Amino acid sequence: MNDLMNAVNPDASLPASSVAQTLNRDFFFRTLNVDVLRAQLESDASLSGMVQDITQTRPHLFSSTMVFLSAEMAQTMASTVAAIERVVALSGYRSQALARAPAIAQHAFGPVGACMGFDFHLGAEGPQLIEINTNAGGALLNVVLARAQQSCCKAMDWAFPLKPAPDTLTQTLFDMFLAEWRLQRGTAPLQSVLIVDDDPAAQYLAPEFELFRQIFVRFGLAAAVADPSALVWRDGKLWHGGAPVDMVYNRLTDFYLGEPGHQALRQAYEAGAVVLTPDPHAHALYADKRNLIVLGQDARLASWGAAAADRQLLQTAVPRTELVMPEHADDLWARRRALFFKPVAGYGAKAAYRGDKLTRRVWSEILAGDFVAQALVAPGQRLIERDGVRTDLKFDIRAYAYAGRVQLLAARMYAGQTTNFRTEGGGFAPVLVLPVAT
Fold it and tell me: Against a cut of 0.70, is the pTM above it?
């Protein structure tokens, strides 16, 4: 207990980053209160039984502990997100990003993209941005999870008043969708929202769809969850179940709406008849992995007018990323152990590979596809307990953001090459930002 008291003492002489690292590495304690989690998830009668269903079908969705982060690291993440937003606003950046995107991504109706996710590893030089996602799942689940934490012991009581107020983040998330609506529709009233994904009930994060539906209803909107194949484009409107749809919260991973079952949604979007968020335009500007190459090119950013402070920050915060080209195959293979390979249009860590794990067969597939190679940044380590045995799991930090402002930080804990929600003791975990020493 004395070691814990010393480690978490906010007035200690150790830097906050060292305190956070010590807590993550050396101390395990359960903070998740399952009864509070159940009350939060099942606050509406229609959601009764959700916790039992999650326990049975998604046992590794939530971790029982939390991840600690220094205020300095958190601020660097927020500054990085804000700097990227300023760079994305530059005409030079936008021109090059859209030049390689399909025609559907050229539509700019106003929305900037709800539920953005900026994923970081904690490197020796600070937070390192490894990926940007335009339909990052888990924000609302992590709001609920953050409220269900309890102090493990008196040594940690000072930290827990920092939990989010019960309604603040929920209001923030709703306001985000309302802002997206107004960017395209102005003062016209928003009346309905449809949450869309392929076979939504079968999606791993399906519980979150229901939570969002509940929030929209609570704020007076008609709301439902649907497969895009159930949509109809008719008479200049998008229809679902006999009613017109005002806004679609898009959880599809067909980012440019090219699949046959998505054509009604595509037609409505291209006609500007529905407010779609996030949309193909946002994906091209943010989530195409080739953007990570550009964000690290100081001279190019300078030529577009990016501020010196933003360029300096991005040089540190964005690991070097390069396009995989067959003519550079020998050089990349020789350096593979220091690289991580990702498909240009990938998501959810699909077809992503650590270079030191590559086989020749996989390497040939990478060379034949569209991939980037990113400098390998090791993930953080968090001590957990599995079957009574204490061991380490890896974690990354996701910054959920809107319009360049971070709304919430959450961790994803896992074993293996990438986040997977299949690891005992892993899953989403709240991030507790340690206060600055006074």
Answer: yes
